[in-house]
Amino acid sequence: MAGTLAEKVWEAHLVRRGADGSPDLLYIDLHLVHEVTSPQAFEGLRLAGRQVRRPDLTIATEDHNTPTLDIDLPIADLTSRTQIDTLRNNAREFGVRIHSLGDADQGIVHQVGPQLGLTMPGLTVVCGDSHTSTHGAFGALAFGIGTSEVEHVLATQTLPLSPFKTMAITVNGQLPPGTTSKDIILAVIAKIGTGGGQGYVLEYRGEAIRNLSMEARMTVCNMSIEAGARAGMIAPDETTFEYLKGRPHAPEGADWDAAVEYWKTLRSDDDAEFDAEVVLEASDLEPFVTWGTNPGQGLPLSASVPVPEEIADANERVAAERALEYMGLEGGTPLRDVKVDTVFIGSCTNGRIEDLRSVAKVIQGRKKADDVRVLVVPASARVRIQAEAEGLDVIFKEFGAEWRNAGCSMCLGMNPDQLAPGERSASTSNRNFEGRQGKGGRTHLVSPLVAAATAVRGTLSSVSDLDLPGHVDLTTFDGTPLTPLEAPSFV
Amino acid sequence: MEKFTTHTGVGVPLRRSNVDTDQIIPAVYLKRVTRTGFEDALFAAWRGDPSFVLNQEAYSNGSVLVAGPDFGTGSSREHAVWALKDYGFRVVLASRFADIFRGNSGKQGLVAGVVAQEDIELLWKILETKPGTEVTVDLEARTVHADDVTVPFQIDDYTRWRLMEGLDDIGLTLQNEADITAFEATREAWRPKTLPAKHLPSVPVEPARPVS
């Protein structure tokens, strides 16, 4: 029978098929662990006298709480320090590999997996973090789980799950200059809504997706959860294999050949049936920004803040009124007139080297707008090292931005990087929920290019608003691969 | 896990859609390493507002939350379920739930019942006109009863069975441990292992700011 990509990966991990409405038991290939959602899971194991079944399929890092300054000093916030110490102790006690703050392989868990070559096509990947969907960019079935499930995977390396439905999201054509994969996913979420993907695995396909670099694909899959979907997937291809080859944990020799042969079968069959389909034309896309307090409340930058009275659906109207009140915005205001206080460039959505390169290209030789704070936080220590090797840090500092150490940072403000009440940000992260970046903080989700242009002008802007000097070549901003991260060599 | 068959308690109308888990419990409260004691964190940003529903005496000891669509979206934090339970909630009713939140609820004995939006509106009306009205949730019959109204709710058969029996998932799975071991023997060599660890080249990480 013809199958979708998601169904093929599912079938390959069936330990036991559920009968009479009970869930299937699925094997988990890779379990990523961080400090926030794991302490209670390890405690559960301890109380039940259980071990981690497969420490060799488990890896931990510190990201949510980690400060981005003074990383060589003890963490000032005592509860954060306790949580990180707890992870370190648990890793030691249960024999789990950990990359701690200060380690070159520390960073946001969804960057650490791919950069080490642990994330591969055809795997099942879980983590106690909803943005685990990021790893689906490799053709893995990857999804976030709660702490009870973290404990379950630690103890059994499996999860009882009922099959997901499948939704094809086809993005035809080519992205216009100045738009990125972030604009694709913001447009998808605005189209299907924050609940539109509930119960589904989204499979992104079509020419515009194929043309994306591996990192740009990760941005798309990362935000699948913001449409309500547990997972997003993209069928692996040469771009995927190229990214993986030579990474520390990538297969070698005959194993590599066997893997690639299998990975090439990981695509939805031509006659596979999806439970739902959505089609977008990339050429219709513009830089997208959110105006409200959920990621579905987004519009093209050229639009104006919606006027609630004009919204027909009563629930949506009330939600819009509440969102505008929280955001301190008037209906009808052109989005380009919205002034920001902070620009945050980072997160598991857009904190990778290509994101930093694209920002650097826009801001090179410029100064940030007065009164705007610009924070650049690489997704991992490795990304930071790479950026510094390329001199990007110098460009950021000369621009007036703060160049920081790696972590989740202001995406969710669990560390000191937060918005003050009433402060407004343009953020390359993934959630514009009330208080997400700090109590009372107001977030506009944007692409790295919009973030860069906004940092220059101080109001929500796209690169087309900038008087571009000769050295900025806009054709490199069309979503086609920028220079890929060089395959690392071993020491 | 405690068995759940029926529950009767004060219903709390929460007329908001898209109540994400950052609203249920802000990230700042996630730094704790315990599994209990999150009651103060529930809806922390809204609790300061005197007009917020839980700040009204009639609802303050509520245990059945009746919420708008897309409840529990966003972050996977199970702390959202712990906070609801620690506050005293046993049931959340909404017309749509985020998948992860619904899963987490089932693991922790919190009933997440799917009720048609028109029935949610009906319940809201009852709970708002007669604050303090008790709601009875019957998991076996899958019904919600308030005042003179009885409406159905949906919950999948497996979660319902587990909740009614109070069963622990890990214990259930480990009954099939032989199947897990047999499956492991078939895994291909190319699948990654985190141990022994392989590293990218070792590079010292310098602090972003000079330290005196």
Nutshell version of this structure?
Chain A has helices spanning 5-11, 39-48, 78-94, 109-115, 147-156, 181-192, 207-210, 214-222, 238-244, 253-263, 314-327, 347-350, 353-363, 381-389, 392-399, 448-457, and strands at residues 14-16, 24-27, 30-33, 58-61, 97-99, 124-127, 141-144, 158-161, 165-172, 200-205, 231-233, 276-281, 288-290, 298-300, 342-345, 373-376, 402-403, 424-427, 442-445. Chain A is of the alpha/beta class.
Return the average pLDDT of chain A rounded to an integer. Answer: 93
Which spans of chain B of ≥5 residues are poorly predicted at pLDDT below 50?
A: none
| Uncertain stretches of 5 or more adjacent residues of chain A | 469-491
Residue share in helix of chain B: 25-40%
Largest sheet of chain B: 7 strands, mixed
CATH topology of the domain at 289-477 in chain A: Aconitase, domain 3
The Cα radius of gyration of chain B reads 21 Å
The helix/strand class of chain B is: alpha/beta
Mean pLDDT of chain B: 94
Radius of gyration of chain A: 22 Å
SS-based class of chain A: alpha/beta
Tell me which CATH architecture of the domain at 10-133 in chain B applies here: Alpha-Beta Barrel
**Would you identify the CATH H-level superfamily of the domain at 289-477 in chain A?**
Aconitase, domain 3
Helical stretch tally of chain B: 8
Fourth-level CATH superfamily of the domain at 10-133 in chain B: Aconitase, domain 4
Count helical runs of chain A: 16
Strand portion of chain A, in percent? Answer: 15-25%
Describe this structure as you would to a colleague:
The complex is a heterodimer of chains A (491) and B (212). Chain A has 16 helices and 19 strands. By secondary structure, chain A is α/β, with parallel strands linked by helices. Chain A has a domain at 289-477: Aconitase, domain 3 (2-Layer Sandwich), CATH 3.30.499.10. Chain A has a five-stranded parallel beta sheet, sandwiched between helices. A five-stranded parallel beta sheet of chain A has the order 17-16-15-18-19, covered by helices on one side. Residues 469-491 of chain A have low confidence and may be disordered. Chain B has 212 residues and is α/β, with parallel strands linked by helices. Chain B has eight helices and seven strands; from the N terminus they run βααβαβαβαβββααα. Chain B has helices at residues 21-24, 44-47, 79-87, 99-108, 117-129, 157-165, 169-174, 177-184, and strands at residues 6-14, 64-67, 91-94, 111-114, 134-138, 143-146, 149-152. Chain B has a seven-stranded mixed beta sheet with strand order 4-3-2-1-5-6-7. In chain B, helix 4 links the parallel strand 3 and strand 4 (111-114). The longest helix of chain B is centred in the middle third of the chain and has 13 residues, at 117-129. In chain B, 42% of the residues are buried. At the A-B interface, helix 2, helix 3, helix 5, helix 10 and helix 11 of A face helix 4, helix 7 and helix 8 of B.
